[in-house]
Amino acid sequence: MLVLLAFIILFHITSAALLFIATIDNAWWVGEEFFADVWRVCVNNTNCTEIGANFQDYSTMQAVQATMILSTILCCIAFLIFLLQLFRLKQGERFVLTSIIQLMSCLCVMIAASIYTDRREDLHRNNPGWYSLTLDGSYGYSFILAWVAFAFTFISGLMYLILRKRK
């Protein structure tokens, strides 16, 4: 039982780490001379421009930013609630609250990655001054980590729903 508990904790910490890296790191769209994410666009590894109010379709990027941040926060809150429930729940009860919050984190990261997947081409086309050199890029590892974090948070949310507290 202790091994299972250690695995679940490690799995949850891995999910949170993936969410932090996907949210913070600058590699959602990459190419040979540039990289871009939901916060800024960098050309030649030195010329970085923050994505701000002068960005066309800025509300779309704000939605991606907000849902990624919310996903990360919810994942951390779910972990803290799991630790509290570990000591507070009676024997045989389920970790339902932890599961609900973790599944909400899963939903948020799915929304963020889906919005970026759907709107990326329009964002690049509508902001030629920012993305003129980035047309021949591909999705970067932060984008891929966001989808991996979606799977991890979904699986851990289901694990918490199934898991019962034992002695």
TrEMBL record:
The chain crosses the membrane at residues 63-83, 95-116, 139-163. Residues 1-16 form the signal peptide. It is a multi-pass membrane protein. It is found in: Apical cell membrane; Cytoplasm, Perinuclear region; Golgi apparatus membrane; Membrane raft. Coiled coil: none annotated. The keyword Disulfide bond does not apply. Keywords: Cell membrane, Cytoplasm, Golgi apparatus, Membrane, Nucleus, Signal, Transmembrane, Transmembrane helix. Pfam families: PMP22_Claudin. The keyword Lipid biosynthesis does not apply. Functions as a key regulator of cell membrane composition by regulating proteins surface expression. Also, plays a role in regulation of processes including cell migration, cell proliferation, cell contraction and cell adhesion. Belongs to the PMP-22/EMP/MP20 family. Interacts with PTK2; regulates PTK2 activation and localization. Interacts with ITGB3; regulates the levels of the heterodimer ITGA5-ITGB3 integrin surface expression. Interacts with P2RX7 (via C-terminus). Interacts with ITGB1; the interaction may be direct or indirect and ITGB1 has a heterodimer form. This is Epithelial membrane protein 2.
